From TrEMBL:
GO biological process: protein desumoylation; proteolysis; regulation of macromolecule metabolic process; regulation of primary metabolic process
Entry's Gene Ontology molecular function annotations: deSUMOylase activity
Record-given protein name: SENP2 protease
Lineage per the UniProt record: Eukaryota, Metazoa, Chordata, Craniata, Vertebrata
Classification via PANTHER family: SENTRIN-SPECIFIC PROTEASE 2, SENTRIN/SUMO-SPECIFIC PROTEASE
Family, as annotated: Belongs to the peptidase C48 family.
Protein source organism: Thryothorus ludovicianus
Length: 225
């Protein structure tokens, strides 16, 4: 291993092993990530909301650089609130933000014991649902399209034409699938990473242990490698 990788490895191991669970290892995006949060990135760990939201924050930050699509990410509590209350329950969430000025909107979704991702591409007028267990999310796509219609009407006074939009749940042959019961959060983060770079999704379940360690370093240093 080259010295840089060795330094990174020892730092990652230290994040898991030394110190107290409540130690804060990174602060940004109005979030404080503790050692306990970071430890969800250990093998077979189940990623929590704080790790998911922090990583989405890193993707949004990167999207401000030249050459990247403009990305907006909702937090992990958005969809459950939307689905239980409709648009009026979440309309304050975009106060001072025009989500329609972005290219891509990421919606990480927490389904009780599973993470999935919904992606709105405003350039293509598509809503795609990514599930690493291959379940369909057509109703989730419809719920978010209805939200976009109401948001557009309310914030911009513009009617969206629903018939111009394509809604699609990604099939198991289109995106990689997890081969265990605990990598769904990492899959969601990496789906979002590749999509927010306009790159084809080419990783496999075998990459998950590497992605987990890489994410530890990225979160602690608040920068994506």
């Amino acid at each position: 291993l080259n010295p840089l990788l060795q330094a990174m490895e020892s730092e990652i191991s230290a994040a898991f092993d030394s110190g107290e669970p409540e130690d804060v290892l990174s602060r940004a995006f109005k979030l404080a990530v503790t050692r306990e949060d970071i430890c969800t990135l250990q093998p077979r760990g189940w990623l929590n909301d704080r790790i998911m939201n922090f990583y989405m924050g890193l993707l949004v930050e990167r999207s401000k650089k030249e050459g990247y699509p403009a990305v907006y990410a909702f937090n992990t509590f958005f969809y459950s609130k939307l689905s239980s209350t409709s648009h009026k329950g979440v309309k304050k969430w975009t106060k001072g933000v025009d989500i329609f000025e972005h290219d891509v909107i990421l919606v990480p979704i927490h389904l009780r014991i599973h993470w999935t991702l919904l992606v709105v591409d405003l350039r293509e007028k598509t809503i795609k649902y990514f599930d690493s267990l291959g379940q369909k999310g057509d109703h989730i796509c419809k719920t978010v399209l209805k939200y976009l219609e109401e948001e557009s009407r309310e914030k911009r006074n513009i009617e969206l034409t629903a018939s111009e939009w394509t809604l699609h749940s990604m099939g198991t042959e289109e995106i990689p699938q997890q081969n265990n019961g605990n990598d769904c959060g990492v899959f969601v983060c990496k789906f979002a990473d590749f999509i927010s770079r306009d790159k084809p999704i080419i990783f496999t379940p075998e990459h998950m242990p590497y992605f987990r360690r890489k994410m530890v370093w990225e979160i602690i240093h608040q920068q994506l490698l």
